[in-house]
């Protein structure tokens, strides 16, 4: 369970506060106006940004002072972070081992994960030899291999076009949430949230609101969300 306790983050004259709990296994969309603080919230949870006050914890263990790599968290960004000079197999090995070392057992695990994301047999390719959608699948495969319980998604599929984006969202939910991981996903598109989110965190006016069930919130949005949705 992710707990944000009286969290306060300031950047210049921008300030964001959050005080809530996200239950295990939730698929939670983070929504709100541009500049509202969605990426800032994720950066504080991931440990890229130190909060000015409050605490971040996971299953009762405080994370606030831990470096990003020490947290039980993996992150999927839009630019995938695949190393262009390394094969897909090496890129994925970095999800298992910081030096990307390979042995027979790791090769087998990588092949199995590639199969699950629809990239069977693509171990030897460089990222440039994959389509944009396939690169997203490879990045998703690396997150699977990292095996961390909380996955943060900062619009990883935004550049893909609507059909492919929906396909990737479905795949991400199936392979990540399907294994009991908790997902926190920045989303600009209510369709994305309606498709896969169980909950929504609304980030607006300096506050990240507690997660609320997605379906009723999207059916009858409060004013801040209504403006954001263009209704
Ligand atoms: N390094 C910084 N110094 C000062 N202010 C910053 C810094 N980084 C971001 N901000 C401000 O913090 C606020 C929140 O930015 P953030 O990127 O989290 O918003 P967002 O909701 O993710 O926006 P978008 O939907 O446009 O991506 C913005 O007003 C931004 O200008």
From TrEMBL:
Keywords: ATP-binding, Cell inner membrane, Cell membrane, Membrane, Nucleotide-binding, Translocase, Transport. Residues 2-230 form the ABC transporter domain. It comes from Limimaricola cinnabarinus. Pfam families: ABC_tran. It comes from the Bacteria. One of its GO terms (molecular function) is ATP binding. SUPFAM superfamilies: P-loop containing nucleoside triphosphate hydrolases. This is Thiamine ABC transporter ATP-binding protein.
């Amino acid at each position: 369970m992710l707990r944000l306790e009286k969290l306060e983050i300031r950047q210049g004259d921008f300030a964001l506060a959050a005080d809530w709990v996200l239950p295990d296994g939730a698929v939670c969309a983070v929504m709100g106006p541009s500049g509202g603080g969605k990426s800032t919230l994720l950066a504080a949870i991931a440990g890229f940004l130190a909060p000015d006050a409050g605490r971040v914890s996971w299953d009762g263990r405080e994370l606030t002072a831990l470096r990003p790599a020490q947290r039980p968290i993996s992150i999927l960004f839009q630019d995938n972070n695949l190393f262009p000079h390394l094969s897909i197999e090496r890129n994925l090995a970095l999800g298992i081992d910081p030096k990307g070392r390979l042995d027979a057992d790791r090769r087998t695990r990588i092949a199995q994960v590639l199969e699950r994301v629809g990239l069977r047999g693509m171990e030897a390719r460089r990222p440039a030899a994959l389509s944009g959608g396939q690169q997203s699948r490879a990045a998703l495969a690396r997150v699977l291999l990292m095996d961390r319980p909380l996955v943060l998604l900062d619009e990883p599929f935004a550049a893909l076009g609507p059909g492919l984006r929906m396909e990737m969202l479905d795949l991400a939910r199936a392979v990540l949430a399907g294994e009991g991981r908790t997902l926190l996903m920045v989303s600009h598109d209510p369709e994305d949230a309606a498709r896969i989110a169980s909950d929504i965190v609304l980030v607006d006016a300096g506050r990240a609101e507690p997660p609320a069930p997605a379906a009723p919130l999207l059916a009858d949005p409060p004013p801040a969300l209504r403006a954001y949705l263009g209704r």
